Structures are given as C-alpha cells and as structure tokens.
Amino acid sequence: MALDEAAVRRIALLARIALSDAEIDTLQGDLNGILGMIETMQAVDTRGIEPMAHTVDMHARLRADEVTETDRHVEFQALSGQTEDGLYLVPRVIE
Amino acid sequence: MMDAGLGAMARALGRGEVSSVELTRALLARIDQLNPGLNAFISIDPELSLAQAAAADQRIARGAAGPLTGVPIAHKDIFMTRGRRTTCGSRMLADFVAPYDAHVVEQLDAAGAVTLGKLNMDEFAMGSSNETSHFGPVRNPWDPSRVPGGSSGGSAAAVAARMVPAATATDTGGSIRQPAALCGVSGLKPTYGVVSRHGMIAYASSLDQGGPIARSAEDLALLLNAMGGHDPRDSTSLERPAEDYRRDLALDLKGVRIGLPRQYFADGMSPDVRVAVEAAVAQLQQLGADCREVDLPNMALSLPAYYVIAPAEASSNLSRYDGVRYGHRASGYRDLLDMYQRTRAEGFGAEVRRRILVGTFVLSHGYYDAYYLQAQRVRRLIAEDFRAAFAQCDLLAGPTSPSVAFALGERSTDPLQMYLSDIYTIAPNLAGLPAMSIPCGLGDGGLPVGLQLVGNYFSEARMLGVASAYQRASDWHLRVPQGLATRAAEAGDGAAQPAATERN
C-alpha cells in the first residue's frame, strides 16, 4: 500500500512531530519506499506460527515487597526546565 | 604502550611498569591530537579521568587491583554516566546529565577502569554510518573521507585510531559488528540478556544488547567479564552463574564445526569482501575447523521484519521525549499539543523521525496484524532457521558487511540503500543470538574487511576461542590505519606531547 499526504499527516500527528509541507513531501516518498521493502514479507505464509515478541522465554520475576529506592525527586526534577513545588509545569490543558 | 591493547596494558599496570595516571595522560594527549580530525568523542573530561586514574593507582599499590584496574576505556554515549553528559547523539539530550549510572558503567567503574570520555554515535543508535549524529559524523581512521559504520562509529573509530584500547558499544541490528568491520577492530554482541540494559538508552528493547569493541578476542573477553552479569533492574537480564569468557581462548579448532550459510555467500557481497572472507574460512579450515554449508532459508526476510519491529519499539520508547521531564523543550508554543510537536520536531533528526513514523504507522489501528504481527511471525521463522542450522554446526561464519567502508554522503540521502549495510547482521538480533566481527583482510582501497561469527545461545566463550585461534594465526587485527601516525604528528605539530609518540 502507498501512503498519501493525508495519511502521512495523520501519522505525524499520532507521533506528535510537527512537520512542514516540504518535510511531509520528502517523508511521503521515504516512507513509501520503506513500506515497499517491508511488503516483501507479506508474501510469506505464516499461518499457524506463533508471533515471537521476545527471544528468550521470559517469566515475570517477583521481588520482595520492600522499598528499595530513595526519594530523589529534587535531583530528577532538576533535569526539567520547568517545575514548581515538586510538580512539572506544562501549558494549561483544562480551562 | 599506546598500541598494546587492553590485556597488555592491564599486565603492565599490574607489574608496575606504567601507572594509570601516565597511561591516561598519554591517551588524553592522543585524543587531543586525533579527535579534531576524527570526531570520535562527543565529550571528554580530563579531570574526572585523571581522578579515576589516581584512585586506580592507589588501589594497585594497595594490592587490591582487579584485571581491569587502571585500564583506560571509553563509553558509547548511549550509556548513562552520572556527572558526565549523556547525549545519545541527539539534540534532544544535548545537555542531559544523567542522575544515575548504567549498570555497565557501574560494573566497569567498580572494576577500576578509567573512563576517558563519551563516544559519538548515530542519533539514538539509528544509523549505519554515524552520519545521523547531532554532533557530526565520525570519520574512518583508515580513510577520513569514509564513514566508520554505525551506530557505534565512535567506539570503533576510537579503538582503531588507538585513542583507547577498548570501548563499550550497543547492537540492535549490527551496531557493534558493522562499525567494527569497517574500522578493522573486533566487536562482540552477546546473547540477548547477558548485558543489562539498565541505564542504556532504549532504541528497540527486544533487540538492544550492549557489548565490547576492542582490538582482539582476548580483550573482548576481558571487557565482557566486567560488562555481563545479572541485574534485577532490567527485567530481561538473565539470571545465570557468572562466566569467565576467557576460559576457551586457547581453544584448538580441531573438530569445531563451522557452518557457512549459503544465503551469506550468495550474490550481494562485493568481490573484495568475498576474497577476504573466503580466505579467512580457508584459514579456519587449515587450523582444523570442519567447515560445511548450511541453509538459513528465511535470511532475506530479516531486513523487512527488522524494519517493522525496531521502528515499532522505537516509536513507543521514544514517546518519553516530550519536553516535560528532561531533554529539549521548544521555546515557543501555543498549547500542550503544540509543545510536544515542536519539541519533538526540533529535538529529533531526520532518521529518528522516519523510524518513529514507520513505527507509529505499523502499530496503528488496522495495520497492526498485517505488519507488526506478521513481522513477529517471520521473526520466529528466522530464529527456527538458526535452531536447525545449529543442529549441524557449532557456529556460523560469513561476511559482516557487504562492502568495505563507503564514502561520507554516499548513502545518507537514500534510507533503503543505508539499511542494506546491515543485511548480514540483523538476523542474529532477531533471534537473540551472540555474534561478533573480527578483522580478516583488507579490501578495495586498503580498507578493512570483517568476518562475522554467529554462535548458539550462550556460546560467547567458544566464539571468542575460535576468534582467538584465528588471531593467533593471522595479523589483520594488529594492522594500524596507514597515515595515522603522520596525521597525529601533523595535528600535534609544535605541541609538547612526549608521552604520545607513535610506537609503530
């Protein structure tokens, strides 16, 4: 399948990346080229094959229910440009 | 001593022939000379390095040294280092100073290794030429007009240029092996789960694996001994008894069964690479290995499967860069959505955006089954191919890269052309198998060719044994890039650099 311009814009919105018209144009060509290469895989008959999400048989490990981490929020929040009273500041989302 | 390699430096330190401070100063001087031309390091901090070296010297004097105490190394800038900037090659993290160390960094610090700096890489490890780095491309020490490979281009170039005897790196689809091949050094991607991913910035979590780049199999083993081991903070870190990866270094190749996948030796590799790889196979045979052809029928599907799975995981992993908690935030925006969109547009380079968009698409409503689940089913077919091959042999051999190092700019405008650089390296990542590259000759333009060895799960020690047997019988891994000494001397012209004179 080939992505049209509207599809590229929709994907960019989902991915939260602002793109100029020129960038959309270039990306449309790039993405369709990459998807064309990926399509070669569609011809393979994989009926009855279990999808492989991971290379090792993983089981969820349990650990003792103990606090092992100390409170370092001041240090972590120092990485953010904008915080106040231990909270991250973002533009208003609820009027 | 500059050209000595990790193991030899460690032995000289242990015998008191040189101090860690002396070694560190000499290598920092060499980095000063060569790095402006090669751009392998993103950051260095001589004061921090010299403090670590002084502490290592005290530890050696106390008789409390381990095998890596006082040895200088450097980290790919994907590993978080507390108190040192960690950029992942991206504008997004250009000023990021991590609040904790990666497990790999903790382990190497505890072993007493000295960190010389942080190494350049493709942005978020997405690339095969190091040209996607926000900090500019790394140049290949063998020919500065060519790429070093990627994504661990800084690690491979720094080791090749003798700026550091060994370095950490990561491999998601070939990012340790391909640059090692293109720069004429040795690199090992361990079995998935051997090296903890804690503090290693995520690209595609089911494929990402840390490992060493060094000059020889012996040095790789020495470094992997410190990098591996269980870490409860990574849920995919394997709980296995500690191994000494040096245990098979004296391996005799008699009776070792080496499989040559037909699909690796079909059309696709350039003639100069074929000559070198076939000569290496012949030499392994002379050394006693039993070489036979095997089949990996689904090999050609590894590229399409990878370019669904890796971007899908990347689009999820990189959603964390939203400008709120850390990293770049756009300076002007209308509202929250606009802030996210501008932040990510400004912070990510072209290749990272492309992969995020591919991943977003293949995971989106209506396409998930056709792309993502199909890719995961193909992934199982590929893993099954390897399982069947390892019923007939102990390890596989073939080319690492279809060509020697290509020119800067040659493939950077055509993503598909660039992706083909990893055609031989991706399949082991999909299966989670250990794989390595060792120098096996010089091709067109006198540029290095790499031999790839792929092993069964947890066969790293044996693979290193095979590599070591080859390196005892050949000298490709000892070759120094031509012209490097001249360029170093020219760069250091007039400056007082007595400790950094070339010994070759």
Helix content of chain A: 25-40%
Largest sheet of chain B: 8 strands, mixed
Largest interface summary: A-B, 50 and 65 residues
Mean pLDDT of chain B: 95
Q: Which regions of chain A contain 5 or more consecutive residues with pLDDT less than 50?
A: none
Determine the CATH topology of the domain at 5-43 in chain A: Histone, subunit A
Q: How many helix segments of chain A? A: 3
| CATH-derived architecture of the domain at 5-43 in chain A | Orthogonal Bundle
How far apart are the termini of chain A? 42 Å
What's the level 1 CATH class of the domain at 5-43 in chain A? Mainly Alpha
CATH superfamily of chain B: Amidase signature (AS) domain
Number of strands of chain B: 11
Describe this structure as you would to a colleague.
The complex is a heterodimer of chains A (95) and B (504). Chain A is mostly helical. Helix content of chain A is 36%, strand content 4%. Chain A has a domain at 5-43: Histone, subunit A, CATH 1.10.20. Chain A has three helices and two strands, in the order H-H-H-E-E. In chain A, a hairpin with a 2-residue loop joins strand 1 and strand 2 (87-88). The longest helix of chain A has 19 residues, at 21-39. Chain B is an alpha/beta fold and 504 residues long. Chain B has one domain: Amidase signature (AS) domain (Amidase signature (AS) enzymes). Chain B has 16 helices and eleven strands. In chain B, the strands form two sheets. An eight-stranded mixed sheet of chain B has the order 4-6-5-10-11-9-7-8. Chain B has a three-stranded mixed sheet with strand order 1-3-2, sandwiched between helices. In chain B, helix 2 (20-38) packs across helix 16 (484-491). Chain B starts with 5 loop residues before the first helix and ends in a 13-residue tail after the last helix. The model of chain B is unreliable at 493-504 (pLDDT under 50). The interface between A and B is large, with 50 and 65 residues.
